[in-house]
Automatic annotation (TrEMBL):
<dbReference type="GO" id="GO:0005739">
    <property type="term" value="C:mitochondrion"/>
</dbReference>
<dbReference type="GO" id="GO:0006396">
    <property type="term" value="P:RNA processing"/>
</dbReference>
<feature type="compositionally biased region" description="Basic and acidic residues">
    <location>
        <begin position="1"/>
        <end position="11"/>
    </location>
</feature>
<dbReference type="GO" id="GO:0004525">
    <property type="term" value="F:ribonuclease III activity"/>
</dbReference>
<dbReference type="InterPro" id="IPR000999">
    <property type="entry name" value="RNase_III_dom"/>
</dbReference>
<dbReference type="GO" id="GO:0003725">
    <property type="term" value="F:double-stranded RNA binding"/>
</dbReference>
<keyword id="KW-0687">Ribonucleoprotein</keyword>
<keyword id="KW-0689">Ribosomal protein</keyword>
<comment type="similarity">
    <text>Belongs to the ribonuclease III family. Mitochondrion-specific ribosomal protein mL44 subfamily.</text>
</comment>
<keyword id="KW-0694">RNA-binding</keyword>
<dbReference type="GO" id="GO:0003735">
    <property type="term" value="F:structural constituent of ribosome"/>
</dbReference>
<dbReference type="InterPro" id="IPR044443">
    <property type="entry name" value="Ribosomal_mL44_DSRM_fung"/>
</dbReference>
<dbReference type="Pfam" id="PF22892">
    <property type="entry name" value="DSRM_MRPL44"/>
</dbReference>
<dbReference type="InterPro" id="IPR044444">
    <property type="entry name" value="Ribosomal_mL44_DSRM_metazoa"/>
</dbReference>
<protein>
    <recommendedName>
        <fullName>Large ribosomal subunit protein mL44</fullName>
    </recommendedName>
</protein>
<dbReference type="InterPro" id="IPR036389">
    <property type="entry name" value="RNase_III_sf"/>
</dbReference>
<keyword id="KW-0496">Mitochondrion</keyword>
Length: 513
């Protein structure tokens, strides 16, 4: 039996070798690994190793057939490269037809070569000339001959061109944030997304002319001040100048406009650059500071808004109303007369320098709202900008009676009655309670003849008399004519039909003591 078993094993080994010789080795790495495992385990697998080896070799040969891909015919227009051309290597692409067809003009684009100069003069762009933006900052246009040409973004040579520090305006049409902001504010279709993207670029990013929202912001600031002032003056003609300036700042001041920008969902970029989304507010952030104020008692941030919060004697040394009307802004602040305005036609102002100072988020947000108002006025007209102002600015509630601060209300009321020809004001006690208690309350009214001008309550007779006089002054200054008699000057501008001008009330002015 031993000899028979050894002969049988020897015969099996020879059979395995004979089975392995006719088949070429597999070229697959996976098959080679599998064969190595089977060879190492051949002493333990026995006869099953022979069947597995044969099946593995047969499977390896059958899995790698040598086939020739069929040539599939494509449409005729694909050879000319007019509408659609599959990439090289695709089974529907017979090589690269553009290599030998680039010299042949496409029939469907032959008219572009004739119409191109006229379209360039008109600033038009056809569907076939859509730009492709590359990483090098150039725009790739496909010319009429089928080739591609790269043109600089600003039309300058590549040596003179500088890298933009903000996203290119061509990316605005593909920004979801810009489209959402455009729809959220219900902006008209006349305002393109490219202009909206420019309104989000603060001058701190790039101070060059035509690269930021400064021109739009200047126009928008004047429009916001004009619409707000005419509304306040026509609805409250007796409003004194300090209260008028405070009301205008409450409506269209930097803090209010920045709050509006946050309510609209405008996000601020961490750092400007061409790779960020065009729908973000682009600005160069100002470094945080926490310096001590001039009074050595309060710490003020290094921003212009902090100047309004200083408790110094500067607020008592403000110039008169006549000087602020001429040299001041819409908030009553004196403008710096020593500013050196650049000439737009000079060579220094047309330089390509991108150096600019930093800005705060509040100032940049306010500049965006002003720029959006100016751009809306330029693209959609005065009616659209006025409707925008009414919907977003005048819709806010402002307590005007809290803007008054009288130093000597009793004296002011006496001079007012003297100027208007009224009887001298007299304070009379209307009611009282708890005179001998710790918390007495006196209700005092101020009368001019039989007419009651004001009424207030206080813990003492003198306090109630002063409060009643202040209440009478506020009632006089906050007088508003009937709404049917109020016609704003902007409502009849441009010869609008349906609105007839009515003369508005003009008050002699406030009481100066």
């Amino acid at each position: 039996m031993g000899k028979i078993g050894r002969a049988e094993r020897k015969h099996s080994g020879q059979r395995a070798c004979s089975l392995r010789e006719p088949f070429p080795p597999s070229t697959s790495s996976q098959s080679s690994d599998a064969l190595g495992i089977l060879y190492r385990a051949k002493h333990t697998l026995g006869i099953s190793f022979l069947n597995s080896l044969c099946a593995l070799n047969v499977h390896a040969i059958a899995a790698i057939p040598v086939t020739t891909p069929p040539m599939i015919q494509v449409f005729v227009f694909q050879f000319a490269g007019c509408e659609y051309q599959p990439p090289a290597g695709d089974q529907t692409c017979l090589g690269n037809p553009r290599l030998h067809l680039s010299q042949r003009p496409c029939p469907s684009r032959a008219h572009l070569a004739v119409a191109r100069p006229l379209q360039q003069r008109r600033g038009l762009q056809t569907q076939a000339e859509k730009p492709a933006y590359t990483r090098t900052g150039k725009v790739s246009f496909e010319n009429a001959e089928g080739g591609d040409e790269e043109v600089d973004v600003k039309g300058r040579p590549e040596d003179d061109r500088q890298r933009l520090n903000f996203p290119h305006h061509g990316l605005a049409a593909r920004s979801a944030k810009l489209s959402a902001l455009h729809a959220r504010l219900s902006l008209p279709s006349k305002l393109p997304l490219q202009t909206l993207a420019r309104c989000l670029i603060d001058p701190s990013v790039d101070s060059r002319q035509g690269y930021n929202n400064a021109p739009f912001a200047i126009l928008g600031q004047e429009l916001l001040g004009y619409y707000t002032s005419e509304y306040l003056i026509c609805h409250y003609p007796r409003l004194p100048m300090p209260a008028l300036y405070a009301a205008q700042y409450a409506y269209v001041g930097a803090a209010t406009l920045a709050s509006m920008s946050r309510e609209w969902g405008v996000e601020v970029v961490a750092a400007p650059g061409p790779e960020v989304d065009p729908g973000l507010l682009q600005l160069k952030r100002q470094a945080a500071g926490n310096a001590m104020g001039p009074d050595n008692m309060h710490r003020l941030k290094d921003m212009a808004q902090g100047l309004r919060l200083r408790h110094t004697r500067d607020q008592w040394n403000r110039p008169g109303s006549s000087r602020t009307n001429i040299y001041g802004d819409e908030f009553g602040d004196i403008l710096d007369q020593a500013l050196d305005y650049e000439d737009p036609t000079s060579s220094s102002s047309s330089s390509t320098s991108q150096d600019s100072s930093s800005a705060t988020v509040e100032a940049a947000s306010a500049s965006f709202v002003r720029a959006l108002t100016g751009a809306l006025h330029l693209h959609a007209g005065s009616s659209a900008s006025k409707s925008f102002h009414k919907a977003h600015v005048l819709s806010r509630h402002l307590a005007l009676h809290q803007l008054f601060s009288f130093t000597h209300p009793t004296r002011d009321l006496s001079r007012l009655c003297l100027r208007e020809g009224f009887e001298p004001p007299v304070a009379r006690l209307i009611s009282e309670t708890g005179r001998l208690s710790r918390t007495p309350v006196f209700n005092v009214g101020v009368f001019s003849g039989d007419d009651k001008l004001g009424e207030a309550a206080g813990a003492s007779l003198n306090e109630a008399r002063v409060r009643a006089s202040a209440h009478a002054l506020r009632s006089w200054y906050l007088y508003s004519p009937p709404r049917d008699d109020v016609v704003l000057p902007s409502d009849v501008e441009g010869g609008r039909t349906g609105v007839k001008w009515k003369a508005q009330m003009v008050d002699p002015g406030e009481i100066i003591t």
